[in-house]
Structures are given as structure tokens and as C-alpha cells.
Design brief:
The complex is a heterodimer of chains A (106) and B (114). With 106 residues, chain A is mainly beta. Helices cover 0% and strands 48% of the residues of chain A. Chain A has no helices and eleven strands. In chain A, the strands form two sheets. In chain A, strands 2, 4, 5, 6, 9, 10 and 11 form a seven-stranded mixed β-sheet that branches. Chain A has a four-stranded antiparallel β-sheet with strand order 1-3-8-7, with no helix packed on it. Chain A is globular and about 35 Å long. Chain A starts with a strand and ends with a strand. In chain A, 35% of the residues are buried. With 114 residues, chain B is mainly beta. In chain B, 0% of the residues lie in helices and 46% in strands. Chain B is built from no helices and ten strands. In chain B, the strands form two sheets. Chain B has a six-stranded mixed β-sheet with strand order 2-10-9-4-5-6, with no helix packed on it. A four-stranded antiparallel β-sheet of chain B has the order 1-3-8-7, with no helix packed on it. Chain B is globular, with a radius of gyration of 13 Å. Chain B starts with a strand and ends with a strand. The chains are: A mainly beta (106), B mainly beta (114). The A-B interface holds A 1, 32, 34, 36, 38, 43-46, 48-50, 53, 55, 87, 89, 91, 94-101 and B 35, 44-47, 50, 59, 61-62, 95, 97, 101-104, 106-109.
Chain lengths: 106, 114
């Protein structure tokens, strides 16, 4: 199974900050990496697919980069509605695996 | 628009089974695999398996092999996930999600309490 490791597991930031979350795969997954945002009591929402493609309706302050084993999610200017938990997920093969999550707190 | 509507919350005793449904609409049901993911309280997302609604082929995560059965009903565009021999550690919210390059469509989640 491909292991996905996110860092940090949590971070504290302020509105307007630039935030970067990293995700590392235990083997190459090409660009088959997705990012999700989850708020308490809600299902995850797709932000980025194929490492860097912004899902429709997602604000442009979210961006993704990377390929192979190392990926990043960047929020260029943190907004109040961005405080949430973020997960990476590989869709390269089965089993689909997720990172452990990064909680972004005020 | 695509909708995945799951069945309601369940409370089960240890050793029992639970069957959660996920009714799909807004797209051609047989054209997309469906995944099941669960989330224990305060924990991350755990992939359980997937089903091809066309034909019913399934792939399960190894840790659920022998305890989970996923099925589909093309006549009602519904997929089901049945988990047996429940234990307290199975208390979680269970989600269905339409498998694609990125999973943009998710059910609302079903809380199963053991």
C-alpha cells in the first residue's frame, strides 16, 4: 500500500497568512494526488485534483504543486472560512490512501 | 446535479451487522465506481473499498476483507455497504463517494454507533 504522510499535523495561522501543507507518498504516484478540505460535521470537499488542477468553484488562493512523491497545498492568503482540516489522497492505485490530515487553526 | 443520499444513522450492538445505502442521481449510475470511506470520531479518513455498479465487481481494503460486502442495485441506482461482526472501534461516520480522478461527489455521511 502507498503511505501518504502529511506535515504538519496541525498549524496555527492568522487571517491573511500564507499557509503551506506538504504531503509525501511512499512511492511515486505521478500526479495522481488530490487535496480535500473538511469542516466539522461535513463531508470532505475536493479542492485540487491531479496535483495542481483547481476544482470548479474553489477560490484561486488555493494552489497545488508537485509530482512523483512530494506535493504541496498552498493557501496564499488565509481567510476565515479556510479554518478546517485538509487531507491529501492518492488516486494512483488501489487501495486509495489518505494522509492523516492537517488541522489549520486560528 | 449529482447527488448521493445515504441512509440514516444506526445504533448497533457488538457482533451485529449494519447495512448502509447510498442512492445516486444526476449522472449515469453505471459509469462510475463508488467508494466507501469511514471516519472514526476525531480521526482521519479511511478507505474501505469500492464497487463497480455495472457488474458488481468489488475491491476491498485488506483490513475489511471478510467483514464487508458492497453491492449495487442498478434498478434503483443504489449501492450498499454491509459491515458485519461490529465492534466498538467501528463507530464512525461512513461516506460513499463517486470515484473519479478527484472525488467531487460525496454522500452526507451515515453515523454508525456500536
Amino acid at each position: 500500500d502507498i503511505q501518504m504522510t502529511q506535515s504538519p499535523s496541525s498549524l496555527s495561522a492568522s487571517v491573511g497568512d500564507r499557509v503551506t501543507i506538504t504531503c509525501r507518498a511512499s512511492q511515486s504516484i505521478s500526479r495522481y494526488l488530490n487535496w480535500y478540505q473538511q469542516k466539522p460535521g461535513q463531508a470532505p470537499k475536493l479542492l485540487i485534483y491531479l496535483a495542481s488542477s483547481l476544482h470548479g468553484g474553489v477560490p484561486s488562493r488555493f494552489s497545488g504543486t508537485g509530482s512523483g512523491t512530494d506535493f504541496t497545498l498552498t493557501i496564499s492568503s488565509l481567510q476565515p472560512e479556510d479554518f478546517a482540516t485538509y487531507y491529501c489522497q492518492q488516486s494512483f492505485n488501489i487501495p486509495r490512501t489518505f494522509g492523516q490530515g492537517t488541522k489549520v487553526e486560528i | 446535479q449529482v447527488q448521493l443520499v445515504q441512509s440514516g444513522a444506526e445504533v448497533k450492538k457488538p457482533g451485529a451487522s449494519v447495512k448502509v445505502s447510498c442512492k445516486a442521481s444526476g449522472y449515469t449510475f453505471i459509469n462510475s465506481y463508488m467508494d466507501w470511506v469511514r471516519q472514526a470520531p476525531g480521526q482521519g479518513l479511511e478507505w474501505m473499498g469500492m464497487i463497480n455498479p455495472s457488474g458488481g465487481k468489488t475491491t476491498y481494503a485488506q483490513r475489511f476483507q471478510g467483514r464487508v460486502i458492497m453491492t449495487s442495485d442498478m434498478s434503483t441506482s443504489t449501492v450498499y455497504m454491509e459491515l458485519s461482526s461490529l465492534r466498538s472501534e467501528d463507530t464512525a461516520v461512513y461516506y460513499c463517494a463517486r470515484d473519479d480522478v478527484g472525488w467531487e461527489d460525496w454522500g452526507q455521511g451515515t453515523l454508525v454507533t456500536v
